[in-house]
Amino acid sequence: MNLFTKSLAVLSAVFLLSACESTMNKNGTANGGGNGANGPVTPGTQSDLAQNVGDRVFFELNESTLSAEAQHTLERQAAWLKQYGNVSVTVEGHCDERGTREYNLALGERRATAAKKYLVGLGIPAGRISTISYGKERPAVVGSDESAWSQNRRAVTVVTNQ
């Protein structure tokens, strides 16, 4: 391979990777990339919830108490769920990698339940919301530092019927 061909291959790879780039905003929703970059998302879908409302809330270490920011996100989710009355969701509870599997499963359940109770308190029928805990088994970010841990301590609202 000559220098021109190698340079062209590297530039092509960089271009392709940059087209896939996305970042997370403070609500945990994607900015850039994904369905929204190619046009509008379909209303009432997971993509709509994630991109336009925010599909996750975050927790402090060993906590299942909702912060003011988490409550604000859940209030937006409740308004969205009221708009799409045929949508059911599952709230997934997640933890960072620290702690035992059993402890994190219980903590993830408390986090998911806290989010569900808040949504129910805002008028969403409990029958439209199920919960599940994944504990530390499904990290959003792999890493062993506070940056990764803080993104893994979360509850994610997932549309179950699109």
Task: Give me some keywords for this one.
162 residues, alpha+beta, 60s Ribosomal Protein L30, Chain: A, 4-stranded mixed sheet, two-stranded antiparallel sheet, 6 helices
Helix and strand arrangement:
Elements: H1 3-19, E1 23-24, E2 30-31, H2 34-37, H3 46-52, E3 56-58, H4 68-83, E4 89-94, H5 101-121, E5 129-135, H6 146-152, E6 154-159
Parallel strand pairs: 4-5
Antiparallel strand pairs: 1-2, 3-6, 4-6
Description:
This protein is an alpha+beta fold. It has a single domain, classed as 60s Ribosomal Protein L30, Chain: A (2-Layer Sandwich). Helices cover 44% and strands 16% of the residues. Strands 3-6-4-5 form a 4-stranded mixed β-sheet. The longest helix is centred in the C-terminal third of the chain and has 21 residues. The termini are far apart.
